[in-house]
């Protein structure tokens, strides 16, 4: 089961908020519904979405698509889990590798591109590294025997953003961890894999911030 983790840069929920564990379900990939991840959300929030599969791509990491969100009863606050993305870094790419090529070499660059894809016109207010998210990632599995040696490291970051939805001013965060692999002499990573990014936002007039966390079982 995938581990998701993020926390908003704004204030936390009011003291005493109760939480419920919500399952993000893959109803397609294994012949029966399977819980792909869990996330703790405030009690009473409604959820929709899950995991779908893109059978048209040969880049394995881009075949599993998280599309899930949770919304507060008044519609003022929400949490969204988005599809992750695997790519090769332009200039260090391998021609026969099946994953797409992009001019993105840091998690910060990735989040800046992602926010304009998901929230066109959004204003980026701040960025911070998230070493706490890196620390929560599962340990890396050993490479198969015979695989060329490589350097692997992780980064995680978070953007604080402002945007409008249906005429309402929102504040939110967008965060994600990424794993970088380097197997060439250029000194640059050539393959990057991100876990599903997580966004949380609230109406500006409430200014209550948000908090969310996810965990494996």
Offer a concise description of the structure:
With 217 residues, the protein is mainly β. Helix content is 8%, strand content 43%.
Any descriptors?
disordered N terminus; ten-stranded mixed β-sheet; 217 residues; mainly beta; 2 helices
* Biggest beta sheet summary: 10 strands, mixed
Number of domains: 1
Whole-number average pLDDT? 83
- Based on the coordinates given, report the CATH architecture: 3-Layer(aba) Sandwich
- What's the number of extended β-strand segments? 13
Question: How is this structure best described in words?
Answer:
The protein is mostly beta strands and 217 residues long. The chain has one domain: 3-Layer(aba) Sandwich (Protein Transport Mog1p, Chain A), CATH 3.40.1000. It has helices at residues 107-118, 131-136, and strands at 19-26, 34-42, 46-53, 64-71, 77-81, 86-89, 101-102, 123-129, 151-165, 168-182, 191-194, 198-203, 213-215. Strands 3, 4, 5, 6, 7, 8, 9, 10, 11 and 12 form a ten-stranded mixed β-sheet that branches. Strands 1-2-13 form a three-stranded antiparallel β-sheet, with no helix packed on it. The longest helix is centred in the middle third of the chain and has 12 residues, at 107-118. It is globular and about 55 Å long.
């Amino acid at each position: 089961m995938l581990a998701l983790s993020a926390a908003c840069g704004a204030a936390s929920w009011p003291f005493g908020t109760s939480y419920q564990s919500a399952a993000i379900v893959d109803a397609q990939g294994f012949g029966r519904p399977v819980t792909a991840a869990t996330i703790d959300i405030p009690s009473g929030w409604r959820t929709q979405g899950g995991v779908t599969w893109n059978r048209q791509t040969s880049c394995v990491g881009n075949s599993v698509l998280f599309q899930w969100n949770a919304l507060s009863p008044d519609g003022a606050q929400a949490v969204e889990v988005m599809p992750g993305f695997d790519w090769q870094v332009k200039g260090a790419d391998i021609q026969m590798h099946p994953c797409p090529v992009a001019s993105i070499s840091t998690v910060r660059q990735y989040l800046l591109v992602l926010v304009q894809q998901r929230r066109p016109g959004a204003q980026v207010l701040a960025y911070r590294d998230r070493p706490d998210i890196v620390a929560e990632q599962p340990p890396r599995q050993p490479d198969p025997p015979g695989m060329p040696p490589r350097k692997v490291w992780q980064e995680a970051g978070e953007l604080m953003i402002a945007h409008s939805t249906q005429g309402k001013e929102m504040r939110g965060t967008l965060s994600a961890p990424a794993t970088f692999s380097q197997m060439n002499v250029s000194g640059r990573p050539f393959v990057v894999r991100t876990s599903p990014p997580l966004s949380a936002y609230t109406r500006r007039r409430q200014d209550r911030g948000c908090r969310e966390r996810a965990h494996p079982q």
